[in-house]
Amino acid sequence: MDDEQAARSDAAAAIMEADVARGQRRARDGKLFGLVWLVFLVYPVAALLQARPLSARPLVALGAIVVFAAADVWIILRGRSGWQSCPQRPGRAEWLALSVLAAVPVGLILAYSGDSASWLYLFIYTSTASASVLPERLAGRVIIGLTIIMLALGVVTHADWSALLYVTLLVPAIGYSVIGSIRMTRTIRELRMAREEIARLAVSEERLRFARDLHDLLGHSLSLIVLKSELAGRLAEAAPERAGAEMHDVEGVARAALREVRGRDGLPPAHPGRGVVRRARDVGRGGYRLLV
């Protein structure tokens, strides 16, 4: 029984370690996937570098994109993935990074109002960053606010309507898909933790049940042994043969209890201690009463 319980405990611990390792691996894969999306920033950077003559404004815009990319990388590496806990409220560093991710697209759209549609796509990064670093309810509000701001900037700068409509639908869709992915991953993690807890409780319940059965068995047997030993002591002088028989019964009860303990397979007997109680009744006929 002890070997079986140890095996179950080891199995539960192995499941927990496997889930932790799986969660860490998925969190790492999610961060790598987020970093891959930064490749698309190459297109606006290339457009800025192709401008002739290369004036100060494209260089400032290039520097802003570098700061934008750095803030996004910091958010990705710090953001949650569903396998990690997220604070109820973001700190100053998170708000500063999100502010950079929101201010850079606004500045670039206003600076390049003639080609504002190209910079509207930067709000996709802002939306996904908000979803990954903010609590769900707050992230949803921020994503809606970003969509409204982006739509207003597109209207003010006379952006292409088809591109504006496409980005207006894309930004909240991607943001809420990230929120849904994080929620689903967190739910899976909670279900696995609940399964592990159920396994641990099952092992604990099995141990407790075995301990109760063992207590009942040994309690009856030891009570009978004490009773017969007292009886043998009283009969030692008056009836030595009867005292010897009682001590022989004590040995039999002890051996029977030992066999039952050694032969237990973890299942409770249908009537634990029935034989012990019957023997106790036989002793009771000699003038003693056993209370169990």
Could you describe the 3D structure shown?
The chain has 292 residues and is mostly helical. It has 2 domains: 2-194; 209-284, Single alpha-helices involved in coiled-coils or other helix-helix interfaces (Up-down Bundle). The protein has helices spanning 2-36, 42-49, 56-78, 92-111, 117-120, 122-133, 136-156, 161-238, 240-262, 274-284. α3 (56-78) runs parallel beside α6, α6 runs antiparallel to α7 (136-156) and α6 runs parallel beside α8 (161-238).
Topology:
Blueprint (H helix, E strand, L loop, with lengths): L1 H35 L5 H8 L6 H23 L13 H20 L5 H4 L1 H12 L2 H21 L4 H78 L1 H23 L11 H11 L8
Helix pairs in contact: 1-8, 3-4, 3-6, 4-6, 4-7, 6-7, 6-8, 7-8, 8-9, 8-10
How many E strands?
Answer: 0
Categorize the overall geometry.
rod-shaped
| Helix/strand structural class | mainly alpha
The helix fraction, in percent, is over 70%
Could you provide a short overview of the structure?
It contains ten helices and no strands.
Features:
292 residues; mainly alpha; Single alpha-helices involved in coiled-coils or other helix-helix interfaces; 2 domains; rod-shaped; disordered C terminus
